[in-house]
Amino acid sequence: MAKCALCRQTPKVGAECPNWACSDLSGGRSEMSVPTGNASKRPVGSSWRMDETYVKVKSRWKYLYRAVDKIGGTVDFLLTAKRDRKAALRFLRKAIGQHGVPEKITIDKSGANTAALESYNAEHEADIEIRQIKYLNNIVEQDHRAVKRVVRPMLGFKSFRSAASTIAGIELMHMIRKGQMRTTGKLRPAQQFSALAG
Fold first, then answer.
1. In contact, 69 and 100? CB cutoff 8 Å
2. Is the pTM of this model over 0.70?
3. N or C: which end of the chain has fewer CB within 10 A?
4. How wide is the angle at C-alpha 23 spanned by C-alphas 1 and 6, nearest 5°?
5. In this structure, are 95 and 164 located in the same domain?
6. What is the side-by-side order of every strand in the sheet holding 47-57?
7. pLDDT (tens digit per residue) in 157-189
């Protein structure tokens, strides 16, 4: 039996979803044509730009690792408490687990990112080319602005968990704006966000 894409409830056969918000958003259909999660994200390129930026949580700076492909499509993101090899490696494993091993990764002069990439290459016998060319990383630096533009007026977050959840929503909306999400129906961005974030 199909579950509602918005609220994950299973309606009776031939019936509308019992959740009034879903009925309002989906026009009463019990099933929407939008797949959920990363299954609906378009594939990313094989040349990535990886960087980190800062986010204030409880008056302390935390690190938001982000990667985009060479045309600016968001590969992945991860909020971490520390900026070290372990955090960079965790982000790298997460991104590669969802999108496969890239051919090249361009990074800044960060020692943590370099160590994480070298560690991943040695551990998995991968052949990821590591490039440290500053001007090629401008794409990810500019992409940080879209997230920072929304986060800055918030004046920081009260907890790490709320920061991670809020940033996930911001990143999802940013991916929708960039046209990275596949849809088979004609949904407005708000409906698409509700279906994917649910």
1. no
2. yes
3. N
4. 60
5. yes
6. 74-80, 60-69, 47-57, 104-106, 129-131
7. 999 999 999 999 899 889 888 888 876 567 777
For residue 62, the cross-strand partners are 55
DSSP state string for 11-80: PPTTPPPS-HHHHHHHTT-SS-S---GGGGBPPP-SEEEEEEEEEEETTEEEEEEEEEETTS-EEEEEEE
Query: Is 156 in the same domain as 60?
Result: yes
Query: Domain span at residue 165?
Result: 47-177
CA 148/CA 11 separation, integer angstroms: 40
* Same domain flag for 65 and 160: yes
CB burial of 33-54 (b: ≥16 within 10 Å; e: otherwise) equals ebbeeeebbeebbebbbbbbbe
Q: In this predicted model, what pLDDT tens digit does every residue of 75-125 receive, in sequence order?
A: 999 999 999 999 999 999 999 999 999 999 999 998 999 999 999 999 999
**What's the token pair of residue 90?**
């965790």
Q: How far apart are CA 70 and CA 168, in angstroms?
A: 21
